[in-house]
Design brief:
Elements lengths: L16 E4 L4 H12 L4 E3 L8 H6 L22 E5 L5 H10 L4 E6 L15 E4 L2 H7 L2 E2 L19 E7 L4 H13 L3 E7 L9 E4 L5 H10 L2 E4 L10 H9 L2 E4 L15 E3 L8 H6 L7 H5 L3 H9 L7
Parallel strand pairs: 1-2, 1-3, 3-4, 4-5, 5-6, 7-8, 7-10, 8-9, 10-11, 11-12
């Protein structure tokens, strides 16, 4: 994706934006805290002390909005409301449309889906980071976003470690094979997956509980290369890709979609199934090529938000 529109941020308008998303876990909390630093109101939908069974049926009840958090009292203040897919449901979208009619209402798919969500289209715009989903379902495309955190962390390079930490989701066999090639190339694979009740593999450590994102981020800051193995058939740029770009790390990925991205540099990205393993040592030992700041800015949160605010849809 070489034609991603870069927009000069106007931070004065961000205080009129409400983002509703999940707040569970270090990854979600990290993103929420970063977005709040721009003046955006970020919150969960409902109070969290309710029993899980009640939360599951609550959206279908006529008094659903009674349990919304205090942001509901400020709905008239917002020009833009973005609901992330994990917390989105049709009753929520309908009520937001009715109670905050002045606001542009957006459903942001942070994950790929297999259904077009047609029932939502009369009430909100649907955006997604994955070009294929947008093309297949007629959604609006805005690439994945991240934050300019390089000056907030101690970034170094241990010159050896290729890092992967994540849920298993069927990725262990691919990781085991990749680890063999990394180790044969004279580098070190440091792979951990969260997959309860499964024994640690030859090269992949199985975690009893998922690592906290701030801890993973610290490890990413000191590794030599970030490893990304996709789940499903997504083709959009991912958070791991942006972590590597922002922190100045090599990237090993099976996402062939990056080949058409302006983030792609052959010296920086090794694409599984496209590049030959015989070139892996040369790739890992070669100097990293600096990505221009103007390219990285296109993938930062302000540019992502501005494109949605201005309805500046990116071409596929």
């Amino acid at each position: 994706m070489n034609d991603i529109r870069s927009i000069k941020p106007d931070t004065g308008n961000y205080g009129k934006t409400l983002i509703l998303k999940c707040e569970d876990g270090g990854f979600e909390q990290f993103f929420s805290e970063q977005m709040r630093s721009f003046g955006v109101t970020v919150d969960q939908v409902i109070v969290r002390h309710l029993p899980r069974a009640f939360q599951a049926v609550l959206p279908g009840m006529p008094f659903y909005s009674v349990f919304w958090k205090s942001w509901k009292k400020r709905l008239c203040e917002f020009d833009l409301i973005i609901v992330f897919d994990v917390v989105a449901n049709l009753p929520l979208i309908k009520k937001l449309k009715k109670m905050g009619p002045q606001a542009k209402l957006v459903l942001w798919n942070w994950n790929i889906r297999s259904d077009p969500m047609d029932e939502y289209k009369d009430f909100c715009d649907i955006w997604c980071f994955d070009e294929k989903c947008c093309c297949d379902f007629g959604w609006k495309y805005d690439p994945q976003f991240y934050f300019d955190i390089v000056n907030s962390f101690d970034v170094s390079d241990d010159k050896k470690t290729c890092l992967f930490v994540g849920f298993d989701k069927g990725r262990i066999s691919t990781l085991e094979e990749l680890a063999e090639h990394i180790n044969d190339s004279g580098y070190e694979s440091n792979f951990s997956v969260f997959m309860p009740e499964t024994k640690t593999g030859k090269h992949v450590k199985v975690l009893e509980e998922m690592a906290d994102y701030p801890d993973v981020l610290k490890r990413t800051c000191s590794c030599h290369a970030v490893v990304e193995i996709l789940q499903g058939k997504q083709c959009g740029i991912t958070t791991r890709t942006l972590e590597a770009a922002v922190l100045g790390k090599k990237l090993i990925t099976d996402n062939t979609g990056i080949l058409k991205s302006d983030l792609y540099e052959k010296d920086n990205v090794f694409v599984l199934g496209y590049d030959d393993y015989s070139e892996l040592n040369d790739f890992l030992s070669s100097p990293l090529k600096e990505i221009p700041d103007e390219i990285k800015r296109k993938y930062m949160f302000p540019a992502w938000l501005e494109r949605i605010m201005q309805d500046s849809v990116c071409p596929f």
